[in-house]
């Protein structure tokens, strides 16, 4: 008897088998997928829009054929005729399962909207943007000294502002003469001041004195989220910020899955390029609307991203990045027109992409280096940008080393049984009483702890929906400190731990974090969850340890946690798990969205662009994939905090019980420990 088709939802990763003919909305509800619907599945509200993906998905182990969903029907056609459905979208209440399918739930179809935490950090930046406004008085035309209006404008810019060699495009020529005459030969000119590749260029002309301003956009293009900050180029102020899920997630949550998708599907790379460009352009439109500005006033864009996103955004197949020696098409900074990547802002707007450091260490790491300046540090600093792919920098004035580690999406709630992305209702803070073993927690959207009066009322709308990345870090670390999980990652039984919150779960045990209520199921932490976090944190620590080996040190002076996720990690909990090297807790700080800050620095200070290009050339790149010691460090780092490194500083402030719950169950115990051979 053949098995029912497999339905996989992204970005949640939830999956299940459903009979042919099952509506996608029904499958989503049965799996607990966050898919909105108001009209009860009658095709009226359109809240349940989804995007099916087709082709080969090696990570999911499926090939999705064109007929995986039922054909477009009259209800969808009627809705499309009246209101319009975006290309590729289906209504989840109308599309039914016909075969194995991967279905993406876009942000606007999710009930619990993700909280994109890549906010703009407060930072003093020396304001010297590449696009500036200049008021000039232009000589009127003269019969005795004939010359073109543009030539006289260029002369005025040189004489009055010492800007030499200014050029202009046809777009400017078509509007220049009316502006000059309306302004009585006085105009305000937006000039892109150029760089080593491009001369200064007129971007826009206004008649008379223009009291307005122009804008730039600093973009952190991550594999999971795209965050952008709209900046006033005359003041440096962040006018508006927003973010959205990277639409490429439906092709794979991690970078290598997307590389595989491009390898397995002939149009895969182009599909992903189109998706990310459309997503970014939609984000620009949204931010401009939020700020109530004309989108055409955005004249400069700076983008930072990892190497795979770099290639896919530029329309370059990332095939070579999927295999040794991980060659980039180019590692240099890119200077483009925004229209080259389909951004519909000012027609002459420019785009600058910071240089990549190496095949797996991208422009986002370069932006972190620009923001945190490890090359100017007196003490030895470890900078960790925590994400799906962690970028790690170690250095001081003597030099900087860099590498990346494939941590995967577990830190962001993926691969976790009750995991979810950061959204209202997600558990983000956890404490466990070491005596009673009873937990308490806080969810996003409320400052009230679960054992305090008013918690139920405060979370009535959002509910308690799952655990986000910072929550899973804290709960596992708290379980370790409370003696509920041993150093190898095994959860104890009821009898071993003295609490019925630990209960049998197949061949291993699980911990019940929340009892649930009449509307929602209990939330538990399983041994599989702990295993996923062990693998992620071991990769992170191993990368850092490898750089320390190369530098010849066993300790660092301080640690900086960067990235949207890094900003929400508790230093103590991260160290209890062994995510980062042993260090005084007061020397572990958060830099927030350092990559986004680096992008803003490059946007608002043109000298910073040359500075980071020079810095990147001096950074020593370490490729973890070819380093023999990486695997050794990885094995040691699988323990919590570590089976080799003793973490003496941590143990002066935190008491770590040393139970052992390994009952000899072999290597399938879910905790990642192999049965040890008995000696002698």
Question: Secondary-structure map with pairings?
Answer:
Blueprint: E1 6-10, E2 15-17, H1 24-31, E3 49-53, E4 55-57, E5 62-64, H2 74-82, E6 90-91, E7 101-104, E8 131-137, H3 149-161, H4 170-182, E9 186-192, E10 201-207, E11 215-221, E12 225-232, E13 238-245, H5 255-264, H6 268-291, E14 298-305, H7 307-314, E15 334-337, E16 350-353, H8 363-372, E17 381-385, E18 390-396, E19 399-405, E20 426-432, E21 439-443, H9 455-458, E22 466-467, H10 469-481, H11 494-497, E23 502-505, E24 508-514, E25 523-526, H12 527-551, E26 558-562, H13 571-577, E27 588-592, H14 594-604, H15 606-618, E28 620-621, H16 628-637, H17 648-651
Parallel strand pairs: 1-7, 11-14, 14-16, 17-26, 19-28, 20-22, 26-27
Antiparallel strand pairs: 1-2, 3-6, 3-7, 4-5, 8-9, 9-10, 11-12, 12-13, 15-16, 17-18, 18-19, 20-21, 23-24, 24-25
Helix pairs in contact: 5-6, 8-14, 8-15, 10-13, 12-16, 14-15
